Amino acid sequence: MIHREKRKIDVIIFLPEPVNLVDKLLARNKRLAREVERFKLYLSKRYEDIWEKLCEEGKRVDLIVEFR
Fold it and tell me: CB of 11 within 8 A of CB of 63?
């Protein structure tokens, strides 16, 4: 639905606690993909080390999507 309507969205990712590798992460002009009952935001490979570190530490990330 989001892709079909070509809506612009702001995405804010909240981490449960500070992570040394993350200062600020901006996602602009990225595509949301629907998988089962969830939406996923795919970032470029240059952010792969951040997600790898979060997975190693067992951190969970909440994704907030605001439609304007």
Answer: yes
The torsion angle over the Cα atoms of residues 18, 22, 27 and 33, rounded to 10 degrees, is -70
Residues 24-33: tens digit of each pLDDT: 555 556 666 6
Pick the closest to residue 30 from 9, 61, 1, 51 (CA basis): 9
- Its domain, for residue 53, covers 2-67
CA distance 61 to 10: 16
CA distances from 8 to 3, 24, 29, 65 (A): 9, 20, 8, 11
pLDDT digits (tens, 9 = 90+) for 14-26: 555 555 555 555 5
User: What's this model's pTM, rounded to 2 decimal places?
Assistant: 0.33
Domains: count for the chain: 1
